[in-house]
# Entry
Amino acid sequence: MIIKKIQGLFPKAVIVLFIISIVPVLVIGYRTMKINSALLQKELLQKQKTIGERLAFTVATALKEQNQVLTEFADLHVDLNKRDFISEEDFAYLQKRVPSLFYLAILSPSDPPNILFEWGDIPISSFLSVQHELLERCLNKWSTFTSAVYYDAEKKPFIWVATPLYQDSKKSSVQAIFAVAVYLEDIFKSSLNPRYPLDMEVLLISEGQKPLAYNGAAEGLDEKSAAELYPIIDTLRYQMLGDSKSEVRVNKKGKLLAAKVAVPYVGWSIYVFQSASVVPKLFVGSSKSDLIIITLIMILFVGVVSYLVIIPITRPLARLRAAAIKLREDENFVVQRGDVEIPRNEIGDLANVFVEMSQALHQRQQELIKTQQELAQMNQVLEITNCHPGIG
# Structure
């Protein structure tokens, strides 16, 4: 029964109208979605870059504040000859202000430098690597030195920070160099962890393209090893090239929206990235009400068009069919103009012909009946004549 209804003219016409209506809607909707998705993607990339810039500023500020503490501490100890350079109170002060400090030394202004005083275990390999640049910056340029990133035996990242110690408060000559080794983990946790949306990932790398922090903590957060992070770093570097924000494809992660920002003063870089699939999700989420409205408008359009176009076609045909069925079942029935609907179109012409045909058939039927009756009377007369010849 359902299949029979679907096979009717009206359902087919509705389906055709629906298809005709939905095709342009889909085309326009697809084009609109592509344009809006591109705009949304551009907006997301800009947002990621803004977040990266904010994180870079936060990291740089944390490093600068730490260096400022060490510089102020060094300025309070300008004369090694008049007092003990480091006291227990000094250690307590430094450990409170810079909890990540794990080695401190006073170096002579010679090349190579001699260690005049030290506290903690010296990371010797990194010290040998930085001592020449450290002396160049502190002795010849009279400025604070911040090293590249190094790793201890437990793979924890740290840096060297050094500042010159002067003979007197006039800073006329460098008497010694104050150098410390500081872990970076505390800086990453305090400056990165709570400062970006949860749907984005943040990767901080050193100037040597080594991972320093992933999603707010030092290397190893979310049980991500360096072996897993290096391919991501390489892909981001080579696919982005000189771009500060773009779409990239990373193995196992698919398409990503990535933004890159340099951290001032230290040569580090911050990558903020997220899956590109977030774009259609956000588009559908933000356009859900619009899609519902468009769908309702389309359904209303099909309904109105069906009523205005299809109903005037199917209704006269339905009445014509009903009249034909009645004519088939009742041989005495004559179709009148009131039994059918006669619009001013081809269907109306068909209805007129049908009415005239019904009336002509009825007239011929009446004439045939009348002729049959006359023949019957003539037959009766002939039979009587044949049976009684004298009557004629």
Notes: Residues 1-5, 219-224 have pLDDT under 50 and may be disordered. The longest strand covers residues 157-166. The radius of gyration is 48 Å.
